[in-house]
Amino acid sequence: MGADVVSNSWGGGQGDLWYKEYVEAWIQAGQIPIFSQGNSGPKCGTAGSPGDFEDVIGVGATNSADSLAEFSSRGPGKSTAGVSYFKPDISAPGSQIRSASSTVGSSDDKKYSVYSGTSMAAPHVSGVVALMLSVNPRLTFTQVRDLLGKSANKIVGKPENGRTGDDVCDGVSYNQLPSFHYGQGIVDALSAVQLAQSVEDEFLNF
């Protein structure tokens, strides 16, 4: 019994397809690949690989005010086969997140620590996808990504950067969703699960 969701909190430069065949294998196995988008913001065109692949869900990071975190990488992606021009796909909390820590070899031996980064945001989306699949295991990757976008919170704050030019990427303002800042918006767990359930209901009533 393989994994249903593969959450990845790592990445590198733009448009690098070296990991593409592995992601394609996950898709063929019915697994949902989710990647942190990167921490190279606030400039535009900083969305990293593999988070910029067409067939993954790339996740940006927001703060407690529902504004894009300054460090969160932004689109557009490179115009290359296999790479999506429109990234990230969605955003999630990623600033000052309390998270589990290893007590082995750490400097403070804490079981929990506070971290910031898109590596904190991607697991939020992974958890939501797991909930979606729990109510509707038949969902495909394409359906999951579509439902996440449709259910996302579209009320977004001005990006946390203080740099006027970075509020617009490739002519698209941060609040013209989908944007190169937030993607389709900020993940909404309840709405996403409800939508996933409604798809299941429609299937059963067909």
Quick rundown:
The chain contains 4 helices and 8 strands, in the order βαβββββααββα.
List keywords for this structure.
4-stranded parallel beta sheet, alpha/beta, 206 residues, two-stranded antiparallel ribbon
Describe this structure in words.
The protein is α/β, with parallel strands linked by helices and 206 residues long. It has one domain: Peptidase S8/S53 domain (Rossmann fold, 3-Layer(aba) Sandwich), CATH 3.40.50.200. Helix content is 26%, strand content 15%. It contains four helices and eight strands, in the order βαβββββααββα. Strands 1-2-3-4 form a four-stranded parallel β-sheet. Helix 2 packs parallel to helix 4 and helix 3 crosses helix 4. The longest helix is centred in the middle third of the chain and has 18 residues. The chain is globular, with a radius of gyration of 17 Å.
